[in-house]
UniProtKB/TrEMBL annotation:
Source taxonomy: Bacteria, Pseudomonadati, Bacteroidota, Cytophagia, Cytophagales
Annotated source species: Spirosoma telluris
Superkingdom to which the source organism belongs: Bacteria
Protein name as annotated: Uncharacterized protein
């Protein structure tokens, strides 16, 4: 069961993204993704760097979080949670509208 990250981390999300999950034909996984997935985050501009920044998928129909146990949509929005607070200055400099990342 997924516990909302705001309850877990006791603060608001660090930033918000729109995402696109690649299909197997596009080079993505054959397994569906679910709420609570813990992918590492990489900036497209810095492909050798990986960060523990977890997505929490937003249910756009309710403006809440996406229900656990149901595969998440291929396209959508997510709040992002930086796990290492010491890296906030790095991400604050890099995160801007239009920056591309890879989960």
């Amino acid at each position: 069961m997924h516990k909302p990250y705001q309850e877990v981390f006791k603060h608001l999300p660090d930033f918000e993204i729109t995402y696109h999950i690649l299909s197997p034909e596009e080079g993505g996984s054959k397994m569906p993704a679910f709420q609570g997935i813990r992918w590492d985050f990489t900036y497209e501009e810095y492909p050798s760097e990986r960060f523990m920044i977890y997505p929490e998928i937003i249910d756009v129909s309710t403006n809440g979080i996406f229900a656990p146990g149901i595969p998440i949509p291929k396209f959508g929005m997510a709040t992002m949670w930086v796990l290492n607070p010491q890296l906030h200055p790095v991400h604050q400099k890099r995160i801007k509208v239009g920056v591309r990342g890879i989960l």
